[in-house]
Structures are given as C-alpha cells and as structure tokens.
Amino acid sequence: QLQLVESGGGLVQPGGSLRLSCIASGKLGWLDHIGWFRQVPGKDREGVACIDHSGGITDYAEAVKGRFTISRNNAVKNTTVYLQMNSVKPEDTGDYYCATRRVPSVHVACSRRSEGYEYWGQGTQVTASL
Questions:
Q1: Closest to 22 measured CA to CA, from 38, 40, 39, 8
Q2: 3-state DSSP call for residue 91?
Q3: pLDDT of residue 107
Q4: For position 30, what pLDDT does the model report?
Q5: SS3 101
Q6: CB contact at 8 A, 120 and 22
Q7: Residue 71 class from Cβ within 10 Å (0-12 exposed, 13-18 middle, 19+ buried)?
Q8: What string of DSSP letters covers the chain?
C-alpha cells in the first residue's frame, strides 16, 4: 500500500507564500510521478504541477507558471514532494491534493491530467484572502 499525506495549507494573504508538502510512504515505485491537484467547489479538479521520479522533469498549469515550484526529495523510507507557492492569488484558493502515477519507463512525460493517478492524499486546504 501507498500512503500520501499532505500538509502546509492554511490562510495566506494575496502576494504571500506557502509551501505544501506531500509525504509518500509505502510501496512507491521508483519511477512513480507525483502530481499536485487543486479542487474548488463547483469546478473541475485542476492539475497544478507534476514531477517525474528524479525531479528533473516538471510541468505546470499556465495559471501558476513562474509562481509555483514543485520539487521532490527521494529518501530511503519515503519521498517528499513540495509545492512552493509564491505570489499567491485569491484564485489559488482550494483544496490541494497530491497523487501518484505509475509509469512504465523513464521516457514517459509528466502529466497533469488526473487520469492515471492512482493513489491520492486527503488534501490540505489553501485560502488566499486578506
């Protein structure tokens, strides 16, 4: 089994910064990609960023490019993926989830589509407001 636990959410003023963490423990495949998604009531879930197994390949939604940075630290016991959120905007408000996607080879592109992501965390809430 694989467990994902997000943390770091909270209230942030517009223009401020926040760092989300996702700890993946258990049977994480060495090639597994990890993505960050956000959900706002009444809207479709949006893939915010994704990262490949090595951290060398990333992809971002247009709305967050230049403001958010995804990174990962692969340790022996678990893997931690971060989402550094800078210059936060009110429209960044939502529930943020991390998820894992198993890929067959190192040549598979990182994807922000939720299809293919198998394991999901419980989410952490981000509110950008004065």
A1: 8
A2: helix
A3: 85
A4: 87
A5: strand
A6: no
A7: middle
A8: -EEEEEE--EEE-TT--EEEEEEEEES--TT-EEEEEEE-TTS--EEEEEE-SSS--EEE-TTTTTTEEEEEEE-SSEEEEEEEE-S--GGG-EEEEEEEE--SSTTSPP---STTEEEE---EEEEE--
Q: How far is CA 31 from the centre of its chain?
A: 16
Q: Read off the pLDDT of residues 101-126 as tens digits, 9 standing for 90 and up.
A: 999 988 889 999 999 999 999 999 99
- Cα–Cα distance, 23 to 127 (Å, whole number): 21
Q: How many CB atoms neighbour CB 18 within 10 A? A: 21
Length of the chain as a residue count:
130
User: Can you tell me which residue has the tokens 């960023």?
Assistant: 49
Are the C-beta atoms of residues 81 and 96 closer than 8 Å to each other? no
CA 130, CA 114: separation in Å to the nearest integer? 31
Phi-psi region of 8 (alpha: psi -120 to 50; beta: other; left: phi over 0): left
Q: What whole-number distance in Å separates Cα of residue 100 and Cα of residue 2?
A: 9
**Can you read off the two tokens belonging to residue 79?**
């893997």
Around Cβ 108, how many Cβ atoms within 10 Å?
16
